[in-house]
Write a structure and sequence with these properties.
The relative contact order is 0.18. Strands 1-3-6-2 form a four-stranded mixed sheet, with no helix packed on it. The longest helix is centred in the first third of the chain and has 40 residues. The protein is elongated, with a radius of gyration of 28 Å. It folds into two domains: about 45 residues; about 80 residues, Immunoglobulin-like (Sandwich), CATH 2.60.40. Strand 4 and strand 5 form a beta hairpin. By secondary structure, it is α+β, with helices and mostly antiparallel strands. The chain contains one helix and seven strands. It is about 30% helix and about 35% strand.
């Protein structure tokens, strides 16, 4: 009658397989994380601080205001100030009801402020969010 492998040898083989699998997973995960960290480091080293200010104001749809969005029911006026000594554009991203719209403004001259009206149609129970993101082209 043949006997199987002893429980001690089976345990050693099982532990060896688990260690090999863990080492493989660690090496593949650490390689992908390193690439991501390198990319973030590149972004940080190439980024710079942009000085701007955004305030919410009243009085929508005045002629001198730049218009963004195609809504007709509601309007939100933003005062955007370029506090840099260079020309900068801004991207206005609006989010409402899961729908995202992005509009880029005309470039701002240095130390200029501008009113922008964000026009939107309301959806019952939904809140509209407007984000202003400065963009500098070099």
């Amino acid at each position: 009658m043949k006997k199987g492998i002893s429980p001690l040898i089976a345990s050693v083989i099982l532990i060896g397989c688990v260690i090999a699998l863990a080492a493989f997973m660690f090496s593949s995960i650490s390689g992908s994380t390193k690439g991501t960290l390198d990319t973030v480091g590149e972004w940080q080293s190439s980024s710079r601080l942009i000085d701007f200010k955004v305030e919410s104001k009243g009085d929508c749809n005045l002629e001198e205001h730049e218009q963004i969005g195609d809504g007709t029911e509601n309007c939100y006026t933003l005062l955007i100030e370029n506090q840099m000594d260079e020309e900068i554009s801004y991207v206005v991203r609006t989010i409402m009801g899961g729908e995202v719209q992005i509009a880029e403004t005309e470039p701002f001259a240095p130390y200029v402020s501008k009113f922008i009206d964000v026009n939107f149609d309301s959806i019952a129970g939904e809140e509209m969010t407007a984000e202003v993101i400065p963009v500098s082209y070099e």
